[in-house]
């Protein structure tokens, strides 16, 4: 069984046990990583993605962080009194060993799953409302409101003028209180 995966802007045909040199990945030696961008699974029953194969992944173990071979760019201009220039470059690479190819049932890798699940899961888990639904309240304002102990629309709607003046962490606007009243009612 083989797979065609995409990483670092390049495509690689891999099998279990293969060792690859790919563009630098943010992982240390010994870590297990998962490539979710699988374009094709080959073997007895080949599956071609459109553009990716759903639920497929390739798991690999990071062997080492290395540098590629030196590439020299030499420029010489003809004629008398012309110039020469030599520039070298070594690309940073990650050496990985393919451990297994998952044709289906692969879970999304941790960074992608956290990025998508965090905004929706945080308010539901703590029993609070999504305060960013109030116009003008962004992620920074949500953190300041939570630091002040305000996590629900009902708490913001119940604030009086004296309460608003007593909160030093953030300047609460009167229109936020009105919108919180509407959102608390449903």
Descriptors for this entry?
186 residues, 4-stranded antiparallel beta sheet, DNA polymerase, domain 1, alpha+beta, 2 domains, 26% helix
Notes on the structure:
By secondary structure, the protein is of the alpha+beta class. It has 2 domains: 103 residues, no CATH class; 64 residues, DNA polymerase, domain 1, CATH 1.10.150. Helices cover 26% and strands 33% of the residues. The protein is built from 5 helices and 10 strands. The strands form 3 sheets. A 4-stranded antiparallel beta sheet has the order 2-1-5-6, with no helix packed on it. Strands 3-10-7-4 form a 4-stranded antiparallel beta sheet, with no helix packed on it. A two-stranded antiparallel ribbon has the order 8-9. A hairpin with a 4-residue loop joins strand 5 and strand 6. The longest helix is centred in the middle third of the chain and has 17 residues. The protein starts with a strand and ends with a helix. The relative contact order is 0.13.
